Amino acid sequence: MTGEMIQIKAKEFLQKRYGNANFEYNFSIGWLEQLKARHEIKFYRRFGESGSIVMENIKDALPQIRAKLENFYWKDIYNMDEIVCKQIIHWLQSN
């Protein structure tokens, strides 16, 4: 979850709590940093950089992966790229 996502959720919570109140609250970078410090929220990278992938290892593994996929129907195989994964993670974290 990114800092921007936290700021967006904070705005949504404020809207739900107070409805259409006549005040504007700025969930600034400073606000975000104080929130993270107060609640000891840390940033961790789940996955490394895509540049760290060794293409030779992928080429060696492809025949094994294809052999395993032969046991499944095409309709049961999902191809999830990075954007789809991020959208699913965002959806799961927001629900």
Largest sheet: none
Q: Rg from C-alpha positions? A: 21 Å
Number of strands: 0
Number of domains as seen in the coordinates = 1
Unreliable residue stretches: none
Strand content: under 5%
Structural class: mainly alpha
User: Which overall shape is indicated by the principal axes computed on the Cα atoms?
Assistant: elongated
Order of helices and strands: HHHH
What's the pLDDT, averaged over the residues?
A: 78
N- and C-termini, Cα separation = 13 Å
Give the fraction of residues assigned to helices: 55-70%
Compute the number of helices: 4
Folded structure, characterized:
By secondary structure, the chain is mainly alpha-helical. It has one domain. It is built from 4 helices and no strands.
Key attributes of the depicted protein:
mainly alpha; 4 helices; HTH CENPB-type domain-containing protein; single chain; 95 residues
